[in-house]
Amino acid sequence: MRNGLQMFLENATLQETLQRTSWKSYEVFLLEAAHTLFIYDPAHETLFHINTTPNEFLILTRLLHAPPREVIPFQELFPFASEQAGGSPAPLQRHISRLKKKLPSHWIISCETWFGYYLWERAS
Question: Over 60: is that where the pLDDT of 78 sits?
Fold first, then answer.
């Protein structure tokens, strides 16, 4: 799998648009123009491919750039939610609900009541 990942990363077109980051032991590749994430799990030599909506992409990248289990306030995750729904958290909750279904099964998005969300990993 590592050779396949290297070939993927060596694609000249992708190198110009692909942002590389990490979260815990995972390598994360962000293709913002397509709202797509590639998550490489080195322990299991697995590459996850996640298509998102623009808002889901924004939310997930903010969670990934925070340390694991650091709570990100609702307003920072999705600053437009309150404007779009008159202060209702429903739009953010819908985006989070859809994201949870797309993530690797051992990645968890949890809510800190009345404050925000955080990303953590359940032991696999």
Answer: yes
pTM to 2 decimals? 0.80
23-55 confidence digits (pLDDT tens) = 999 999 999 989 999 999 998 899 999 999 999
Q: Can you read off the two tokens belonging to residue 44?
A: 């299991």
Helix then strand then coil, in percent of the chain rounded to 5, is 40, 30, 30
List Cβ neighbours of 16 (8 Å cut-off, separation of 6 or more). none
Amino acid sitting at position 48: F
Report, in angstroms and rounded to the nearest whole number, the Rg of the chain calculated over CA atoms.
15
Q: Which CA distances in Å does 69 have to 24, 27, 46, 64?
A: 11, 18, 23, 10
Q: How confident is the model at residue 62 (pLDDT cuts 50, 70, 90)?
A: very high
Report whether 37 contacts 30 (CB < 8 A): yes
Name the residue with tokens 């925000």.
116
Provide the 8-state DSSP code for 67: P
Contact 50, 32 (CB under 8 A): no
